[in-house]
Structures are given as C-alpha cells and as structure tokens.
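Cross-check.
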Amino acid sequence: MTGELDEATLEFAHRMFDLARGGGTGELAANVDAGVPANLTNDKGDTLLILAAYHNHPETVAALLARGADPARVNDRGQTALAAAVFRQNAETVRILLGAGARPEDGSPSALATADFFSLPEMRALLTESRS
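Predicted model, tokenized:
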C-alpha cells in the first residue's frame, strides 16, 4: 500500500507517529479530530496508542482513547499498549488503559506476562487489582 501513497502523505503519517512518540498531544488530537484514524498503524503494526504508551505519554494515551483508539490492538509482535506501558513501568498510563477497558491478558506476551518476565511486582499488582 505504501507504493500507492505519495511522499507528502507518507511524510504526514510519519509526523503523526512522531507526535505519538514525543507526546505532542494537542497537535495529534487535533489531527485525529480532523480525520486521521485514531488507530493509524505503522509498518510494524504499532498504533499511535502503542507508541504513546511505550514512550510514557499518559496525556497522549488518554487523548487517543477519548478519540476511539482501540486498547486491544496488537502490533506485529503481538504487543499491546498495556504491555508497553507495563514494560516502561508507567503506572499512570497503565491505569488509564485499564480504565479504558484494556485487558491484562491480551497480547503475546500479555501485560501480565511482561510484568512477570521482567519481575515488575508493582505493575503486576496494578494489573491484578483491576480484576477485583
């Protein structure tokens, strides 16, 4: 499909992914409001939400979720935004994703498996208390 996109479109898409990585919440949210898909996905299957979660931008994560980003989407490696937030040990992002319906057992490795593999008891506690 990238063969069908012109250079300006590709450059714009890359800019959106850079905003997700960099926490450019206002500009990214405005572009989603203007029609950029909330679940825009790059060539590795990473969504804007996964990138924002991995790079520790809870405000961006919240803004994307409010605009319809799917917390259950997985990238080409089977990872979810929740697993990315657990790996980065960002409790605020984990709470936001759980509040939006992200499930700790989704993905491969799941957020639970990620917490266990990297010995992150605080993250595991956040994930398991969400089930109570």
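The chain has one domain: 2-129. The two ends are 44 Å apart (CA to CA). Passed to J.P. for a second look.
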